[in-house]
UniProtKB/TrEMBL annotation:
SUPFAM superfamilies: TPR-like (SSF48452). PANTHER family: CELL DIVISION CYCLE 16,23,27, CELL DIVISION CYCLE PROTEIN 27 HOMOLOG. It comes from the Bacteria. One of its GO terms (biological process) is anaphase-promoting complex-dependent catabolic process. This is Uncharacterized protein. It comes from uncultured delta proteobacterium HF0010_01J10. One of its GO terms (cellular component) is cytoplasm.
Length: 680
């Protein structure tokens, strides 16, 4: 979009030429572009922008039809924080039919001045499409996306910001501007957990002014995330030695590192220093409370944590620590009163608003924070109160909010299920004597509370167990025929028991359970092998799902396979589809294209639905027209509804979730980022 190489030399050369021919508008336009580039991307300052405007005015005086001068002038005015004259320049250029990448970049700057992040992103995207081989629009868009991205926020924003930062670096900025891009990309790598890439990027900045101080701080963050707390303390102290910026934040992080290193006294000292600088620093107060707990100074810790909660009621870890301390002291009375108080106050809380803190541990929505506290209290009561079910039941009538009432009722059901677990666990320890279809159904219902090892133990039922059960459960047989009939009945009960346990293992979605199901699918007889295959299908094995559907179809019961494979998506967490490339056996449900005709497809966990990348891109472009407000509509790829995802679209009759669109759109971008960071 603009010149960048040897700018000082270019400006000097053009200045000499303009001195010889002051009325040449082309020379003035060229110098205006050079001084604009120096001011915008190379820290030239306001003096360069004023020189740009002077050249633009003279150029327009000499050639009033120069649309390029209007655009360059609009950029300079926007950078000088003069939005109204900037808009007049840009609108005049736009009205004359120009649609250049620089024009849209300037409109993006205007949108940023008006705090319109969406508008800025839209214009920078248009600029990128107009100049895909120029690094400036990628850098502007990446920076805008990076400022909108937050740790723990929407992953798609972080992915897009990383992609455009990588493209900007690949396309050629050098020197200080490249270092600025590396710094932003390093921050994004920290957000996304790419710690090796973050270390490599910040290590490149460790010897570059003025990035050295920031690089050491972020290397400390990376080391702390890795659990290398001694190294993190070293980097943080080096940062403090060179900079007065964010002292309280750095001291709080040093304190957290000392706490992880089991040095509570040092942690307390660092927190005290941080609080002396910033008395409202939440992180320092939280670490101070934790350090006091580690030192056994519980009364002081409770006081600090209460003060923290008065300052930030949404600080979930502080409340959880208070509840933990009360639970250890078996203070069921305090927990019951706290639960009743939290439920009773819920209806009076605003639905939105509350804390403006950006601290990651603070929940800003008052009702969301209260829900989390209620869950924490119920968890504590379940360990201390023998009548916890009655306690929670009595709280349901303290609120009229149907959502909270339902949450409390769910907690009651969960507590009741946990009370049944010991009995089921005992049944699993002696499967030869206790097997039955009814007991298997109960184990399946309680699967999330029972470890894989216990469920695997329950699978052991042998012929001797069947003979013993035939006698113990039915009494002595009159003859061999009757005994065989009773053994046959018990064999069916045992097979039902084992099949249900295999499904219970699948319900837990663990790696060890997956391995066990694979072994049973290969080694067991046809009936139990089919049960294991069904479990694998529920876990997302497309080959197993195909075999289950084929088996059901052979018996004329394909609808049963649909019912068996669907509940997991309806009742559990939405599944993540698989990205598949060059598979001609897949056909797009919406347009009919085969896998080899498109860059990739998304395939559902069950394997029966696939949607191509081209259709998912069309959904993204038409999302406002395709969005549905029906909460019963579920994504054909993930099983997600509006209760699970921020949006669901219906394209060519196929429901598609926002998460599926993001996953497809980000596939090529993630591959570009992966290639770049792997080469660092």
């Amino acid at each position: 979009m603009l010149p960048h190489d040897k700018l000082d030399w270019i400006v000097d050369r053009l200045t000499r030429q303009i001195d010889q021919d002051p009325d040449d508008p082309a020379l003035r336009r060229e110098r205006a572009r050079a001084t604009l580039a120096r001011a915008w991307f190379h820290d030239g300052g306001e003096s360069d922008l004023h020189e740009t405007l002077a050249d633009v005015r003279r150029s327009l005086h000499l050639d009033s039809s120069s649309v390029e001068s209007l655009v360059v002038g609009g950029c300079a005015l926007a950078l000088l924080d003069r939005p109204e004259p900037a808009r007049r320049h840009l609108d005049e250029a736009s009205n004359q039919g120009i649609d250049s990448p620089l024009l849209h970049a300037a409109y993006g700057l205007l949108a940023e001045l008006h705090h319109d992040a969406t508008g800025a992103i839209r214009h920078f995207e248009t600029s990128c499409r107009g100049a895909p081989a120029d690094w400036e629009p990628h850098a502007l868009l990446g920076a805008r996306l990076a400022s909108a991205a937050q740790p723990g926020g929407r992953q798609r924003l972080i992915e897009r910001a990383m992609f455009h930062m990588v493209r900007a670096l690949e396309l050629g900025p050098i020197g200080p501007r490249a270092n600025a891009l590396r710094h932003t990309l390093g921050q994004l790598c920290l957000m996304s957990g790419r710690l090796d890439a973050a270390d490599a990027l910040f290590s490149q900045l460790i010897d570059a002014d003025p990035w050295r101080v920031e690089a050491r701080y972020h290397l400390g963050l990376s080391a702390a995330q890795r659990g290398k707390h001694k190294r993190a303390v070293l980097y943080f102290r080096q940062h403090l030695a060179e900079s007065d910026a964010r002292q309280s934040d750095v001291l709080a992080r040093i304190a957290a590192c000392h706490l992880h290193l089991r040095e509570p006294e040092r942690a307390r000292d660092a927190c005290t220093r941080a609080i002396a600088i910033d008395s409202n620093h939440l992180g320092a107060r939280w670490v101070l409370g934790s350090a006091l707990v580690a030192e056994g100074r519980d009364d002081e810790a409770k006081r600090v944590l209460r003060e923290l909660l008065e300052q930030a009621p949404g600080h979930a870890p502080a409340f959880a620590e208070l509840v933990r301390m009360r639970t250890l002291n078996n203070d069921a009375r305090w927990l019951r009163q706290a639960l009743r108080s939290e439920v009773a106050v819920f209806d009076r809380l605003p639905a939105a608003g509350g804390s403006t803190s950006r601290h990651p541990d603070v929940t800003s929505e008052p009702r969301t924070a209260t829900r989390e506290r209620i869950k924490t209290l119920i968890k504590g009561l379940s360990r201390t109160d023998n009548e916890v079910i009655t306690t929670v039941m009595s709280c349901i009538d303290l609120t009229t909010d149907e959502g909270l009432r339902f949450t409390l009722w769910e907690s009651v059901l969960d507590l009741m299920a946990r009370e049944r677990v010991p009995k089921v666990a005992k049944t699993l320890q002696e499967p030869g004597a206790t097997f039955s279809a009814a007991a298997g159904r109960e184990a399946l219902l309680l699967a999330e509370h029972i470890p894989d090892e216990a469920l695997a133990t329950g699978l052991t039922v042998g012929e001797e167990d069947l003979l013993r059960a035939a006698v113990d459960r039915h009494g002595p047989a009159d003859d061999v025929v009757e005994l065989r009939q009773r053994v046959g009945l018990e064999r069916r009960e045992a097979r039902a028991w084992q099949a249900l346990l295999l499904l219970a293992i699948a319900q837990r979605s663990s790696n060890s359970g997956h391995t066990l199901l694979l072994r049973w699918a290969q080694d067991a007889d046809e009936e139990l092998g089919f049960a294991a295959l069904t479990g694998l299908a529920l876990l997302g094995d497309s080959d197993a799902a195909a075999q289950v559907r084929a088996h059901a179809k052979a018996f004329g019961l394909p609808h049963l396979a649909d019912i068996a494979l669907r509940p997991r998506q309806l009742m559990g967490t939405p599944s993540r589809p698989t990205i598949v490339s060059d598979d001609d056996t897949l056909q797009c449900r919406t347009c009919g294209k085969r896998g080899g005709q498109v860059s990739h497809m998304l395939r559902s966990v069950s394997g029966d639905v696939a949607v191509c990348a081209e259709c998912l891109t069309k959904v993204a472009r038409q999302r406002s027209d395709l969005a549905t407000s029906d909460p019963t509509v579920r994504c054909a790829l993930t099983g997600a509804s509006l209760l699970d995802d921020e949006a669901v679209y219906v394209y060519m009759g196929v429901p598609i979730s926002q998460a599926s669109v993001d996953q497809s759109l980000g596939a090529d971008e993630r591959a570009t980022v992966d290639r770049f960071v792997s080469a660092l």
